[in-house]
């Protein structure tokens, strides 16, 4: 009986720990939930409800601009370090010739991070690990 109690206690502690940090990633499950709501309200109309974007995102439209890319790990977003992801959401794509509006007056820094957690939660473990390694290398190169 005592062994069962210890096993249940250990399993409960493990469940609490894994629920608070999403599979060893930098964010919590609560951030992902909040990010999902924010993404749905601000980003999904262009990037898709699950960050999957449009089918022909690699082909420019009649205006010569490319449609919004997927953010679910199947395109290039995972190549960008955190500071670039934040900046892109904050200032948008218009300064770079794109169509994405800026969100600096609509979303706080915390909300921008929560949006990032949502689409990063869609990344496979392999893609996330590659991003994390790139992030660490960039941070080291910058002396952080």
From TrEMBL:
Cleavable signal peptide: 1-22
Alphabetically ordered keywords of this record: Electron transport, Heme, Iron, Metal-binding, Signal, Transport
Highest rank taxon of the organism: Bacteria
Domain Cytochrome c: 30-123
Presence of keyword Heme: yes
UniProt KW RNA-binding keyword: no
Entries under Pfam families matching the protein: Cytochrome_CBB3 (PF13442)
MF terms in GO: electron transfer activity; heme binding; iron ion binding
Cited InterPro entries: Cyt_c-like_dom (IPR009056), Cyt_c-like_dom_sf (IPR036909), Cyt_C_IC (IPR008168), Cytochrome_c-type_DH (IPR051459)
Name of the protein described by the UniProt record: Cytochrome c
Organism in which the protein naturally occurs: Solemya velum gill symbiont
